[in-house]
Automatic annotation (TrEMBL):
InterPro entries: 6-blade_b-propeller_TolB-like, NHL_repeat, TRIM-NHL_E3_ligases, Znf-RING_euk, Znf_RING, Znf_RING/FYVE/PHD, Znf_RING_CS. This is RING-type E3 ubiquitin transferase. Residues 24-64 form the RING-type domain. It comes from Branchiostoma lanceolatum. The keyword Cytoplasm does not apply. Keywords: Metal-binding, Repeat, Zinc, Zinc-finger. It is an enzyme of class 2 (transferase). It catalyses: S-ubiquitinyl-[E2 ubiquitin-conjugating enzyme]-L-cysteine + [acceptor protein]-L-lysine = [E2 ubiquitin-conjugating enzyme]-L-cysteine + N(6)-ubiquitinyl-[acceptor protein]-L-lysine. Signal peptide: none annotated.
């Protein structure tokens, strides 16, 4: 009887279009608790609730028609057209544990809204917002999972602008940005125009550009906290180094800010601060890190750092004690070439933007190679994992791409 039921589900499935009837266009995953809007488009119930919280007034993410909900709200919308058991069957049949498929790309080179000039740090909120540190445009831009531009704000201090590099979210949804002050007077975050200093020429070599930024003797490095709407809250000095690239991560269990630092003439480190700027500890001064580029903190509180010059990933426990490293020069499995962005998933797997090899590699929690999760992506810079197991990647061609597993 069970076999007959499963066969019926598969026959029912074959009569539907997978893209339109099985996949939620918000999270890009198979539909979960599907709800159909009056316009006929179907989405996950949780995705619609998150979308409605961000998009006011609420409109369909696909056709932009106004969402008219019944009494009781979105949970009382009609269910999707397929029997819920069909979705469970497909989830069991279509598991791609080692490969991610490109779903959507947005951005492009420029200074208009939705365009980038050096997309560095990335973060994804629980509400389905994608935050992008738009380095050379000195701003943070916000998008939904459709790649639709939602908002932006300039990265300013009370007295000057900063070039944002690292970006992360705290447990309250506020945005920490690390970057270098431009040495120019701060613009209003409501301004609609801006200019770049003449000596900041266009280049696809991120390391060269970081050196250009660092040449200003009057500039300083900061960690700055903004609200999700871009309102400045606080900042603290993180001590300027010769490199402008300063990765940042949030240890949400301790509410600490974790920042990379390249030391001139010595081992480079990772510093852990309280939000008020008090330095709590320094990590990694004995392992020979050269250029710690990006950093993340996993669910166990481990600190993982990518060293693009090493090239290794260094892993430390929550007390800051060295555990192990993995990587090493090369193009083979488990080898790295200029690793940049790094993130982990809820299973503890580690994803590394292997920029010099034009791929994103996946490792287990002990650094064992699993697969090339994404191949043929031009110089990936930053990578983050969404709670629905999609990967969001920025690259040197000034685009951001969402990949579905």
């Amino acid at each position: 009887m069970a076999a007959a039921s499963e066969g019926h589900e598969l026959i029912e499935l074959l009569s539907f279009n997978k893209e339109e009837d099985l996949t939620c266009s918000i999270c890009l995953d198979l539909l979960t608790a599907p709800k159909t809007l009056p316009c006929g488009h179907t989405f996950c119930q949780d995705c619609l609730l998150e979308h409605a919280a961000v998009q006011v007034p609420s409109v369909c993410p696909l056709c932009r028609f106004a969402i008219k909900t019944p009494p009781g709200g979105i949970p009382n919308l009609p269910n999707g057209r397929l029997d819920p058991n069909v979705y469970d069957t497909i989830k069991n049949l279509e598991k791609h544990e080692d490969k991610w498929i490109e779903c959507r790309t947005f951005g492009g080179t420029g200074s208009q809204r939705g365009q980038f000039r050096g997309p560095r740090g990335l973060a994804v909120s629980d509400r389905g917002e994608i935050f992008v540190a738009d380095y050379r445009n000195k701003r943070v831009q916000v998008f939904d999972f459709q790649g639709t531009f939602l908002s932006s704000f300039y990265t300013v201090l009370p007295e000057e602008d900063i070039y944002p590099y690292g970006l992360t979210l705290d447990s309250g949804g506020n945005i920490w940005v690390t970057g270098r002050a431009s040495g120019s007077t701060a613009r209003s975050s409501k301004s609609s125009s801006f200019a770049l200093l003449d000596y900041f020429g266009m280049t696809t070599n991120s390391s060269q550009y970081d050196r250009e930024i660092s040449s200003s003797s009057s500039s300083r490095d900061f960690a700055v906290l903004y609200t999700r709407q871009g309102r400045y809250l606080i900042h603290f000095d993180i001590q300027k180094t010769r490199w402008a690239a300063r990765g940042v991560a949030m240890d949400t269990s301790e509410n600490n800010v974790v920042v990379t630092k390249v030391n001139d003439g010595g081992d480079s480190v990772v510093q852990v601060f309280k939000p008020n700027g008090t330095l709590l500890k320094t990590i990694g001064d004995q392992q020979g890190m050269e250029y710690p580029h990006y950093v993340t903190v996993d669910k166990e509180g481990r600190v993982l750092v990518s060293d693009s010059a090493g090239p290794y990933v260094y892993v430390y426990d929550k007390e800051g004690e060295f555990l192990f490293k993995f990587g090493g020069w090369g193009e083979g499995e488990g080898q790295l070439n200029r690793p940049h962005g790094i993130c982990t998933d809820t299973s503890g797997r580690i994803f590394v933007a292997d920029s010099g090899n034009d791929r994103v590699d996946m490792f287990d929690s002990r650094g064992g190679f699993l697969s090339h999760a994404i191949s043929d992506i031009k110089q990936p810079l930053s990578v983050v994992m969404t709670r629905r197991r999609n990967l969001v990647v920025s690259n040197s061609e000034n685009v951001v791409t969402i990949f579905h597993n």
